[in-house]
């Protein structure tokens, strides 16, 4: 790859509806790019980034917290929610307050949601006897011995959220917001670092493309909802409500929520110390776009420029 060129960069993509406002413009040619887009679940992309198999990708917030030595943050782009998220749900046969000592089936697709659930169980409710088991949700619900409660994320949560056998529903982002008063950051976009770092000019142009795609998506949600409705998971109106629950950027409030979550990860023993919020020191291709991304990315981009 020539110096400063974006051609050939492998960009991860969550295989969920929640990233359509960013990736639709890339995948339909509304925004010019040379990415090779690789789709997968958050857990799969976390592992690919950890192994250095992707150049840039969204990853679960906990993946960055656990491996800050292997990735750096991109400015001004995230998946955050300042209240109910609809697609990160604990569904239970009994009231959540009665789950201490019970087993909860956990989705294999996510890491951040699993840790958030453990934080809420231990730090908010004081539960120490909950048992957790990873497994496929469909198999777990259809094997003749369904769990007392299960955690579902993404499209599975949208499908299972009205399950008649599980009337007690915890929207984890809503519970976090009521508890802390802060937004919750589920995912961050990162760039690989290490022995094969991505060239800084290529990173800057990649950020520029992602920002352009995000702007297009948020300005054309009606188009995206019309296309996403074809999946049959939600109708057009439901998708509009769903997408408007998200913030796809990083600001002071979302960063405060992220840092607080990392502190709770330390408290429950998931990580040994707080990770630095280490943003890339790359500028995009033009001064005009650099100013735009600095504005959108906030103090982190400016501070690391």
UniProtKB/TrEMBL annotation:
Q: Which residues form a coiled coil?
A: none
Q: In which pathway does it act?
A: Quinol/quinone metabolism; menaquinone biosynthesis
Among the record's GO biological process terms, what is one? menaquinone biosynthetic process
What InterPro entries does its record include?
Menaquinone_biosynth, MqnA
- Quickly give the catalysed reaction: chorismate = 3-[(1-carboxyvinyl)-oxy]benzoate + H2O
**Keywords of the record:** Lyase, Menaquinone biosynthesis
The EC designation for this entry is 4.2.1.151
Name the protein family.
Answer: Belongs to the MqnA/MqnD family. MqnA subfamily.
The molecule here is called Chorismate dehydratase
What organism is this sequence from?
Desulfacinum hydrothermale DSM 13146
């Amino acid at each position: 790859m020539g110096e400063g060129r974006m051609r050939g960069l492998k960009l991860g993509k969550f295989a969920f509806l929640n990233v359509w406002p960013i990736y639709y413009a890339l995948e339909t040619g509304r925004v010019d790019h040379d990415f090779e887009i690789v789709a997968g679940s958050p857990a799969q992309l976390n592992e690919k980034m950890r192994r250095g198999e992707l150049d840039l990708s969204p990853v679960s917030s906990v993946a960055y917290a656990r491996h800050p030595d292997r990735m750096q943050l991109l400015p001004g782009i995230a998946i955050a929610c300042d209240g109910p998220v609809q697609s990160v749900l604990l569904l239970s046969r009994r009231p959540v307050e009665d789950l201490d000592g019970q087993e909860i089936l956990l989705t294999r697709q996510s890491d951040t949601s699993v840790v958030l659930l453990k934080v809420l169980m231990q730090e908010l409710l004081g539960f120490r006897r909950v048992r957790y088991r990873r497994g496929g949700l469909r198999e777990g619900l259809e094997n003749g011995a369904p769990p007392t409660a299960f955690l579902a994320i993404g499209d599975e949560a949208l499908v299972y959220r009205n399950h008649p056998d599980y009337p007690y529903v915890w929207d984890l982002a809503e519970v976090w917001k009521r508890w802390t008063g802060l937004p919750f950051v589920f995912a961050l976009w990162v760039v690989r670092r290490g022995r094969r770092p991505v060239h800084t000019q290529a990173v800057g142009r990649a950020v520029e493309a992602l920002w352009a795609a995000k702007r297009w998506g948020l300005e054309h949600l009606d188009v995206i909802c019309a296309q996403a409705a074809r999946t049959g998971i939600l109708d057009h109106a439901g998708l509009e409500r769903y997408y408007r629950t998200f913030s796809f950027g990083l600001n002071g409030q979302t960063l405060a929520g992220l840092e607080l979550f990392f502190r709770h990860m330390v408290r429950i023993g998931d990580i040994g110390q707080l990770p630095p919020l280490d943003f890339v020191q790359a500028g995009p291709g033009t001064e005009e776009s650099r100013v735009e991304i600095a504005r959108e990315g906030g103090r982190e981009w400016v501070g690391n420029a």
